[in-house]
Write a structure and sequence with these properties.
The chain is mainly beta and 178 residues long. It is built from one helix and eight strands. This is Outer membrane protein beta-barrel domain-containing protein.
Length: 178
Amino acid sequence: MFRSKVWIVLLGLLCGSLVVRTQNLQEVKLKPPRGAVGFGWTYLYADVGAGERVHLNGWYVRPSWNLRRHFSVFADFTNYYGVTKKGSLNSHGFTAGLQKTLFARARVRPGVFAEAGDVRSSNAGVTNQFAFNAGFNLTIPVRRHFALTTTPAEWVLLYPKGDPRNDFNAKAGVSFSF
């Protein structure tokens, strides 16, 4: 009889502690981040015209602002550098776009995005050209405000002087949310 009373008391304490723990977790519910700033390395397999393709490397900075339903708006600032048959190439991209994050609570968070803007290239003259990009990326949260990011595939359409060009872009970096 004494043992059954002890078990009842222990079971009551266990259930009570679970209820208190659940209430504390609900009270401590953290607000989602308002946005993030990402930066890192970028690679571009570029069509530079006349059938020539080159490998370009560079850096990017990507501030973003989170919206509802796992959407975010962002600006993307990139710089590429390399060498073509015409000499050294320096390219600056300024684009803005929209991203949809899928599985926002997962350990690996995939996302799809589209963006458009302007690319300024200097290689035997300076040209400005329309750019449209679309692709997918992966975010791997490490801490609450720190994540690793990668864009394994991004299609880039450039349209300099009526000559459409298709490029491939990939990125790897880090992101700090706020």
